[in-house]
Predict the 3D structure of the following.
Amino acid sequence: MSGESARQPLSYRVPDLGAMELLLAVARLGSLGRAARELGITQPAASSRIRAMERQLGVGLVTRSPSGSRLTDAGALVTDWARRVVEAAEEFDVGAQALRDRRDSRLRIAASMTIAEYLLPGWLIALHGQRPGTAVSLLAGNSAAVVRRLRDAEAELGFVEGVDVPGGLDAVTVAKDRLVVVTAPGHPWSKRRRPVPARELAATPLILREEGSGTRQVLDAALAGHGGLAAPLLELSSTTAVKAAVISGAGPAVLSELAVADELAARRMVEVPVEGVRLTRELRAVWPTGQRPTGPSRDLLSLTRGRPGVAVHDRT
């Protein structure tokens, strides 16, 4: 039998650390009352704890008198043992704090493009105010890439835009988003008096994000019942590239309202109403199943959920 398997659990007679610390204080100060004050407890509570420790061990530890408290011979021996245990516990605590400090000194985030460009900057500024010593690295890509990085342990926290929560991940909704159909001001759709029907939108070649992007996933799902998406007019790997193509007059696109707010306000793009299809989605924070965010990840998640107007739904 190996030494590991032969180990026995600690006896119920082993006192807890708090009781050992009290005994050490009594030995050092020579007074139960002064020991109680140092540890922030009442003298009756300290007396009760010493008596309970004596019952637990089966030996007397402290002799009390009007002039103070004195250790018995057994108490002096137990104090020596307790000192080693408390010192080891303090070393353990210091080591554990060092691990927490190392963990809390960095945060690796993977985020889909829309969230990375339009939401995360504000959240990270707020996080810096809370944790100025935390170094943040951001890996931006489409939602499929975010999922891969979480599964490969390249990031502690991710943000995605897809239709469903990917397998193997837990999630919480941090915001709602609306997709809008946009064109250049001179496009024929910009002058329509009636909304574009869902079937016409599906049948029209659009400027699209690549497969794997959250925007593409939502659009595919929304138009699946209307004949499915036509072959793309252009397929581009970034929202910035899609916007540039739309503004140049290449054709219509479907993009996040967050991403085109400035262009719509400046009239470089026109929003085209549609009917018969719901183009909304949830933006989610995600992490590996069973690994709840801790440290800076937890704080960032709290900031996203605490922003005004953010809708929250916890899946876990």
